[in-house]
Amino acid sequence: MSHPEYPIRPAQDRPRRGRRWALGILAFVLLVTGGGYAGYRLLGDGSTDPQVTAAQERLQPFLRAWQKKQAKQAGEYTDSPTEAESLLDSVMTNLKPSRTKITTGDGERKGEGDVRVPFKVNMRIPGAGAYAWDSEARLRERSGKWTVMFSSPMVHPKLRPGQTLALSGKDARGKILDSKGDELQAASLTGGVDGTSGKGTSGLQARYDDQLSGGKGPRKAVVVADRNTGKAVKKLTATKEAKGRPVRTTIDPRVQKAAADALSGVKKNAALVAVNPRTGNILAAANKPGGMNRALEGRYAPGSTFKVVTAAALLNKGMRPADAGPCPKFVQADGRRMENQGQFSLPAGTTFEEDFAQSCNTFFIGARDKLSDSTLRTTAESFGIGGKWDVGAATFDGSVPANTSDGDKAVAVIGQGRVEASPLVMASLAGTVKNGTFQQPVLVPDGVRKKHRAPRNLDTRTVSDLRSMMRSVVTKGSGDALKDVPGGPHAKTGTAEFGTDKPPRTHAWMIGYQDDSQLAWSVLLEDGGSGGKDAGPVAARFLKNLGR
User: Fold this and answer.
1) Are 521 and 545 a contacting pair, CB within 8 Å?
2) Cα–Cα distance, 543 to 462 (Å, whole number)
3) Which domains does the chain have, with CATH numbers?
4) What is the pLDDT of residues 224-271, one digit of tens each?
5) Which one of 26, 200, 295, 305 has the lowest number of neighbouring Cβ atoms within 10 Å?
6) What are φ and ψ of residue 139, in 5° steps?
7) Beta strand segments in 246-355, E
8) What integer is the mean pLDDT of 353-373?
């Protein structure tokens, strides 16, 4: 049934009663809240009372100076400059906030020449997290000038004269342990901890910060403390209850000390790494000086120590250690004349094994035609080089790109050009010869998710020949610094050119393993001279230290 006396209007023609009601509520809210302002404003002034406005203008520089940790300047706006400076300096020194923000609310006149202004302090405190509190400043007008009436409760309402704010909390951080369960004595491995926040900043301390600290959350509490005794009077914030768990490493303290002692007299930046060839466990990683962990993360041309890989590639191609191996003074490659260190040459009838023992560059460069552009890369993969290692710490795992030119291959066969490795990689390389197969190094067993496995193993005959050749380096080659060291050391020396100086500067290397124990090692001296002459004596000291 229709009702013509009540015609239906289109929606847009209907009275907007709901909207008008909503706007009325909004207008009321705006009126009550003072134009929509709620809470605090950053050092603001929302008053129309001239006395309140003047007081707040005087308060602002005091709060700004407090924010900036300028206690002396802040004190100058108060009636007690010395007391204000002392307490504010104490609070900011104790808490060491990384960020402080102070916001003010609307001031209120309490009488002629007497104004109160509420304010909120927000701090970000290392070790304790975010902490905020409300307080109130009282200002009085004296001789036409407004002054902040300073008191301890103004800084924090829980403070009383003779008290301050401070941090409290026991150090529940876990320890980084060696393989014997004692605290690890190797600063370049453990890394650092921020003294204020208690947070790990580098090395294993940073990598395992959650485990060592017991997880995320405040480690320290903000407390009211007696300024004379330092004793906490009242706890203002909470702390987590969890205790940190230790991180256990594979470092053998005896081997680590022997390595550190061997580097003690070295005047160059240096690193010494030792691994167990059978398990891959890292037994020592010493750096001099501390700081950068060049032992595990350094990227260097390995020089002639890489000839272990090149020799393996040639052995895989059918060469034998007794085969003839000419070693002239010079050889041409890609239009360049290349030479041996000191331009030495070996007589006619020299063998492949003797070239390896004496580290003859020209033989290896001359033999490059036996290798394809990808041979060095695939052979290096048998030693684990270039894979992604998961050792429980940051590492550089080596790089041996496929060759892109004849000149690129000529320098790659002697460990130069784009070939790079860390001391850890080279210790592992020696360990692979000792063990016969690659075992990925490990530093923190519980931190390892998946070990890298070499895509292929070395041929057993190749391994046998490499062992013989590395022993000859010691008995009749460039590694004679180890000749009197017991334990049957096997080695390879390396002198790696770097930079653009002429003559070029060189890193000194020696790598090797012991025949009578599960120990493989590498020594690197940055800008340190030659492998046999300079790195060799360091390796000898290390091995002799272990025998004492």
Assistant:
1) no
2) 26
3) 50-157 (3.10.450.100), 176-245 (no CATH), 253-547 (3.40.710.10)
4) 999 999 999 999 998 876 678 999 999 999 999 999 999 998 999 999
5) 26
6) -125, 140
7) 247-248, 270-275, 282-288, 330-333, 336-339
8) 97
- DSSP for residue 13: G
Backbone phi and psi for residue 477, each to the nearest 5 degrees, phi listed first: -140, -150
Summarize pLDDT for 127-139 with one digit per residue, the tens. Answer: 888 999 999 999 9
Residue 49's alpha-carbon distances to 38, 112, 486, in angstroms, are 19, 12, 92
Around 36, how many Cα atoms within 13 Å sit in the side-chain half-sphere?
Answer: 2
**H helix runs in 76-182, sequence order:** 81-95, 152-155
Written as one string, the DSSP assignment of 373-416 is TTHHHHHHHHTTTTS----SS-----B-PPP-SHHHHHHHTTT-
Integer-rounded Cα radius of gyration of the chain? 36
Task: Residue 508: name the closest of 474, 532, 481, 480 by CA.
Answer: 532
CB 174 within 8 A of CB 245: yes
Q: How many residues does the chain have?
A: 548
CA distance 249 to 201: 19
Specify whether the CB–CB gap between 305 and 531 falls below 8 A. Answer: yes
Q: Decide: 525 and 268 in contact? Cβ < 8 Å.
A: yes
DSSP character for 272?
E
CB 59 within 8 A of CB 137: yes
pLDDT of 244? 87
- Alpha-helix runs per DSSP H in 359-511: 361-366, 375-382, 406-412, 423-435, 460-476
Q: Which helix (H) or strand (E) holds 496?
A: strand 489-498
CB-based contacts of 219: which residues, under 8 Å, 6+ apart? 127, 128, 169, 172, 197, 198, 213, 239, 240
pTM here?
A: 0.77
